[in-house]
Amino acid sequence: MEFKEVLKGIDSLYVSYKGTIKEGLKERLEEKKKLAQSEDEKEQALAVMTIDDHCFEVSDRGTKWYSFILVDNWYHLQISGSKRQKLPQIYVQVSSELLTCYGLDNAIINLRKIVNMLLEKIEEETISRTDVFTDFVTNGELETIEKVSWITRAQKTHKYWNGDIFTGWTIGQGGDILARLYDKTVEIEKSRKEYLREIWEKQGWDTFQRVWRLEFQLRRELLGQMKINTFSSLMEKINDMWKYCTRDWLRLAIKETTINRTRWKTNPLWEKIQDIRFNDGKFTGILREVNKSRIPSDKTLFQNGIGYITAFAAREGFENVDKGTLSEYLEKAKNYLREQTNGKDEDYLKTKIGNKKKKYNKA
Question: What's the pTM?
Answer without folding.
Answer: 0.86
